[in-house]
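Q: What would this complex look like in 3D?
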Amino acid sequence: MSFNSSRSANSGGNLKRSNDSNSNNINNNKKLKKSNQKTLGMAWGSNSLSSSKSSSRKSNFTDFGSYMVVKNGKLHDQFNAEATSSSLKDSSNSGNKPLFHGVSIFVDGFTVPSSQELRSYMLKYGGRFENYFSRSRVTHIICSNLPDSKVKNIRSFSRGLPVVKPTWVLDSVAANKLLNWVPYQLEQLVNDVHKQPKLSAFFAPKTSLGLQDAKTAANCKLNLEEGCSLKDANSQESPSCEVGESTEYSPELKEETCIYGQEKVFEVTEEEPISAEQLLLESLMAEPSGSNFNGGEAFKSSPCKSSASANDFIGDQSKKSPSSPQIATSSNQCNSTLGDPNFVENYFKNSRLHFIGTWRNRYRKRFPSLPSGVKDGNSAVTNGASVIHIDMDCFFVSVIIRSRPELQDKPVAVCHSDNPRGTAEISSANYPARDFGVRAGIFVRDAKSLCPHLVIVPYNFEAYELVADQFYQILHKHCNKVQAVSCDEAFLDVSDQGLEEAEHIASVIRQEIYEATGCTASAGVAGNVLMARLATRTAKPNGQFLIPPEKVEGFLDELPIKTLPGIGHVLDDKLKRLRIQTCGQLRMITKESLQKDFGSKTGNMLWNYSRGIDSRPVGVVQETKSVGAEVNWGVRFNTLQDSQNFLVKLCHEVSLRLQGCGVQGRTITLKLKKKRKDAGEPTKYMGYGDCENLSHAMTIPIATNDVDVLQRISKQLFGYFHLDVKEIRGIGLQVSRLENADMTSQGHERSSLRSWLSSASGNMEERSHPSMEMTGEVPSLDGQCSAGLTKHGNPNSDGDSSRLPKSSTGPSTWGHTNQSPAEASLSRASTLPQICDLDMGVIESLPPEIFSEINDLYGGKLSEFLKKNDGKDDKISDSVISSSRRELEGEIIKGKAPLPSEEIHVEETTSKNKGKQCRFQDYQSASTSAVGSLNLHTDPLSGDKYELMPTSLSQVDISILQQLPKELKVDILESLPAHRRSECSDSTLEKCPHDELKVENFKDQLEGAESIFGKSLWSGCPPEWVDKFEVSNNMMLKLIAEMYYKSGSTGFLSSILQSLISVLPLSLDASNDVDDNVISSLCDILRQYIDLKIKSDMEEIYICFLLLRRFTTKSIFFLEAYDRVLPYLQASFSENYGGNLNI
DNA sequence: ATCCTCCCCTAC
DNA sequence: TAAGGTAGGGGAGGAT
Ligand SMILES: Nc1ccn([C@H]2C[C@H](O)[C@@H](COP(=O)(O)OP(=O)(O)OP(=O)(O)O)O2)c(=O)n1
Ligand SMILES: [Mg+2]
Ligand SMILES: [Mg+2]
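A: Here is my prediction, written as structure tokens for the whole assembly.
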């Protein structure tokens, strides 16, 4: 089984698909009016992946989205069955694998042939067809020529995935073999890729290696032996290599000719029919190895075309660097965040630490975790385990100078600068240079002074990437338990082999690495990870070393403790102060003493390591725990706006990385480097110098990867540091408490269909005592009105539940939902979706038994409906949008939602027929039923007139409209009759003074009766309640009103409560006279605030309630109000997000 | 005890 | 000029 198919397996039971033409018009909002519901769905779906428009990313959190999730999830098994049977039957190509095995296409926009046809081809020949783009599932994006306006969108979400023309599929079918897709790439995008550096260049999945490489590599057969000089190797270079290794350092050649030249020179294939590149390619693309790479020709004219991925890194760099000097000059801060609008991109592009720091994520994608399915790490501890540690020698230098044999014996270092007075850092030094004391991390000026003849060579990140790939290709070939440490270093568990055999393996591997890459590696062999690593140190350079168990003690006796992994300069210094320099001396200290001095774990580690004991198993690939991005170089701000702009860029970067990892997180941490008072200009150019490191974290109730949420939170966090932006020398943003995005982002909606279809067992997760640090006041930096909130609901069934909180149950399946009718009657959120809301394409493609099940739920109306609409697909798009407008119009104008009797009827039918309802989740109070019944779901289902509603809009209430991209909103509203437009635009587009979207508060229709003040206590500026509180007789209310102004009149309740913190202790006495009316008043504003914010700013509510909870311990007044309103919040949360909210 | 945040330390 | 990132482990100290 190829890597690719393993990867497919990873995505488990949630492969997305459905049946037909719904893949039109990705993200093309302008087409909304003409598009059918599925098209709209695509627009929304793709919005979430688009990084180009910040305003367009809310919209995927709707009923519609969850509907799609369910749709896909439920259909997945059926698709598998269908695809398997038909592909087995029809696959006639020679191999045993179906033609499109491992290929998973996503069709974007209009294509010839239609996406429907493409789908059937894929299905027929063993491929997959994804209706919704997912980076983890889609291998190829199919797309015809696009208008320029769309190219940008495509690029932003394809991010390195091949974007190819539909003819690739056709031709492959015609040829009865999977053709190389490269010649079918979309030209617009290929060119575009090189013009537009990517922010996350390092994260781009490396789905494409230059085919040219593979091809020419195969032609360039050389045999390099360890003694054979590189010069010889070069001289043997096959003429068929268009560009040789020697061009590597010639900038004018390197730029446009062949940046992969070096890879070919060292390719040794011997009798191996497949080169490393080919293997890699196959692993990535599931190209049959028999495929003849007929795309090679396409490259000759345009060698750089293939680099639609990690290759961009260098491609961009080589193109950009010549032009960089012109930018410089004027200010001495021209290289800071002040001088360059694209600072972040450019910085990361050139940062070695960014490269090695992000390498792991790229590796994960290229070598999906196939091994270590068996994680028996215990063998490593007890009986004769064998561990190999292998590490490339002076990696960065080695890769560069392999093509420059004249430098082999000279001292060489990799560095951005050759300036003998410069503060650029040495990245890697070769062994001759190390003899002079040159080390990684020292300034180039120091290196030069240590070694005046030091040769400085530049980075070639792309080459590092390729060599690392070759390196790991070889490792995986020899061992299935490979633990990647870094791009040049790994552990192999060969415990089944014995140490001597391990030595042999190590030497074979090293030889192969040298032959394949022209770079040497060293290896250590021992009984555990620790000793193997230490052995490598001894082995270097270009050697290997065995430490058998009986030699461990002797080896460690004199070993400086600094050598032990985990002991850096700080621990080393501390131990030195205890007169401990060697492992032998360390062994004299008792474990208890070490633990007392250094902590329990660290002490234990020291004690064990000094004895050569290490029980860590090899090859455990643990899930990502955090994702972040930071910049601590060139960070200089003059104004608050400078800093906020930069923060926004970081948020984008982090959001992209989260998406790249397929995760979302709940804890957002902002880190700042603040220049110390007494610190002068840093020694290092544009460095941070002597800084205080500060951080603030906030945990939100719902995991997110949404850039707008990140922005809002990070801006809040930013305000917690009360500092002058001029003092900032570094910023970092990190997201932790990660959850799998497949669950969180897709199970976010409160779709009735979702909860109805799935067993709703998922979202019962306990959210354990989230907390946040509240220091200072919430600043009013946050002037934006982003409605962004990643909603959260039931984790839908998904093969990978590894991130599921323990308390949530497994995936649900059809026929296993259970809910009592009583529960169901409480919940409008569990209503059956109306027939018009269903995607008929999907319904039609359902397996018969499932179809009939649904049909039963609808009392047989589904089949009737299908009959009626048979062959009317063409008309759908127009009617859909108009009816959706009508519906929106209705909701907006009426502002209330009388429950259509038909819907109730359906619900009753449902209960009777099947007893199958969504599980009603955690409604905890009587108010729930009122809240629950407020789901604005109006369209009457009158007689046989089934309107074809766009799924996304029919179930949408007004807040969803708010979440639409503004263009879309305008689009919809414009299409309304003029008089209505003005009416509803009031509640949807107009902003209130606080720059928050004003929400029409429909719920008050039912809640208002108990309100003293009536509705919209929060309307106006100041909000109405402020005045009322001010003139009230109650001290507490007056105080709160006062806090409104003290907090800056921002209108954020959290700000008000924060201000209240500082004075509350003083007011405790005043709150002794607990007046029920007073509490009611507070409850009113709280409830209305919940209504106002629940959809747009759950975090804000969450923060407020955290604060309120604090007050409850100090004030009966707040305790009472909190207890009264909390159930309301929980019900409201439940309704909106389908889960529990624990404060 | 166990969790949290806010650090620091380490490795590449 | 120069590109001091990234992620995990862990400890101190506080809240529950
Ligand atoms: N402070 C550092 C450490 C490492 N690296 C980069 C350059 C190295 O080449 C690569 C691999 O790190 P190693 O620790 O393996 O160092 P080398 O491979 O350069 O040398 P060695 O032969 O000791 O492994 O990571 C870097 O840029 N800066
Ligand atoms: Mg190395
Ligand atoms: Mg290394």
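A: To summarize the key features: Chain A has 50 helices and 16 strands. The mean pLDDT of chain A is 62.
Q: Very helpful, thank you.
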